């Protein structure tokens, strides 16, 4: 989603090596200097990920965008990212162009019109959280037994 600089990827490669992961591509990635990172990471990253059995998504691909959204969703569930900030980031990045995030874009619009609508921020937060849960593949756990299907 464009949230990470190339040098941050290099540092993540260093952390991965320190944690015990190893491959020639990962070592090459970790060896990049700050000055080289902006140029070399884009070339080295696909091979490093492939060697580790991970998927590389080309920049601006729909599959990559969907993977980024799915990776961001758990941060809502852990409280690291507020529902409002989640919808704002998704809407700003994808608008209504990505089918997977259309509902989140619509919910972001609802936050913007709270003072004119009939819903509360808490109601929208709950809907965003449910959408984040759906994106992560986690089952819905009713907050109240009366919410359970009967």
Task: Please describe what this structure looks like.
The chain is mainly α. It has 2 domains: 6-51, no CATH class; 62-145, no CATH class. 62% of the residues lie in helices and 0% in strands. The chain is built from 7 helices and no strands. The chain is elongated and about 55 Å long. The N and C termini lie far apart (40 Å). Residues 139-150 have low confidence and may be disordered.
Annotation keywords:
elongated
Give the SSE layout.
Blueprint: H1 6-18, H2 24-30, H3 34-51, H4 62-77, H5 83-94, H6 102-112, H7 121-136
Major β-sheet profile? none
Q: In terms of structural class, how would the helical and strand content be classed? A: mainly alpha
Rg over CA atoms? 19 Å
Output mean pLDDT: 88
Number of helices: 7
Q: Tell me, what's the shape?
A: elongated
Q: What is the percentage of strand-forming residues?
A: under 5%
Q: How many strands appear in the DSSP assignment?
A: 0
In short:
With 150 residues, the protein is mostly helical.
